[in-house]
Amino acid sequence: MATNVTERTSARERLLAAANQLFYAEGVHTVGIDRIIEHAGVAKATLYSAFGSKDELIRAYLRTRHDVRRAIMDKRLAAYGNPRDRLLGVFDVLGDTFLEPGFHGCAFVNASAEANPDSPILEVTGEYRAWVRALFVELARDAGAAEPEQLAGQLQVLYDGAGIAARMDKATG
Amino acid sequence: MATNVTERTSARERLLAAANQLFYAEGVHTVGIDRIIEHAGVAKATLYSAFGSKDELIRAYLRTRHDVRRAIMDKRLAAYGNPRDRLLGVFDVLGDTFLEPGFHGCAFVNASAEANPDSPILEVTGEYRAWVRALFVELARDAGAAEPEQLAGQLQVLYDGAGIAARMDKATG
DNA sequence: CCGACACTAGACAGACCGGTCTGGTAATGT
DNA sequence: ACATTACCAGACCGGTCTGTCTAGTGTCGG
Which terminus of chain B has fewer CB atoms gathered within 10 Å of its CB, N or C? Predict the structure, then answer.
């Protein structure tokens, strides 16, 4: 098939892009399906054949965001020369994301605040948190911390708190 | 009128109690008006004559919660003997609230995550954050901190981060 | 007794929700 | 030439949302 070098973005990708934009900016509960498909220029049936339900679209949106953040973090951290700088560098990366235009807090904190206690969305937010935690543990261990698990927990508190402050106080922290 | 010593709770109070319970546990956006009035045992018209709109009910719910937290904090902090213990005591009080049954994170963080960017709800959540900030500044100053404003900002990051971790990780931090 | 008031019960309106379904179009592989 | 696939446009469904309105009840002070 003569797929161009730059293949036209598929409906699925456009849907994910629209979800990433609207869900993140206004909340997964506030934004309706109609807004998403209108923004993506996609038929409603296409959305439901691709994702099955709104909840699954939300999960896919969060997973995509998770993947992007992980890729950015890995790439940026690789530039640091020693383990200690790499550990502290997490907060450099975090601080830079606060400065991005349209920053609206941690997507996973926001989504979990909107979700019902038994929502399948919490599974994805939990995976993100587990990744952050594991990242801190690994970096703390590499940096020679006496108790990496404990330090990781403390760093995650700083990580979360900085995100909340950045969203609610609009300060750079 | 022979109001008993224990006056029967007014419709307004029952509505606020129901709002406090349902909004906090499940989110202000998820819980509908019908659930509130059913739980309060109150007619819908009474709610709208007392509060005017759902947004105003949400604001009243948050203001009530703010008042309660402020009262608890003031009372508990008064028990500490010196300024430094009083400053650190904020986190003792915070930690105790995490252990209360039905704890579901900071109501103001949650509500602001659900709100539209121009929602009148953000006004009330902002007032709460300003109070927390002012409390930390005052206590830091009394404790003789070199830069009370800066320290207060750092302590608020810990305050927020601990709340997020307590909700999302169900850990006592 | 009477008017004012606070309240209850519930129908109702109008908008919007997530989700399904039909019908049509264009490109594909065989 | 044909079937398949992927997609779009939009009507449609049942349900839920906030908010209004009507009608009736009980309780109070004067």
Answer: N
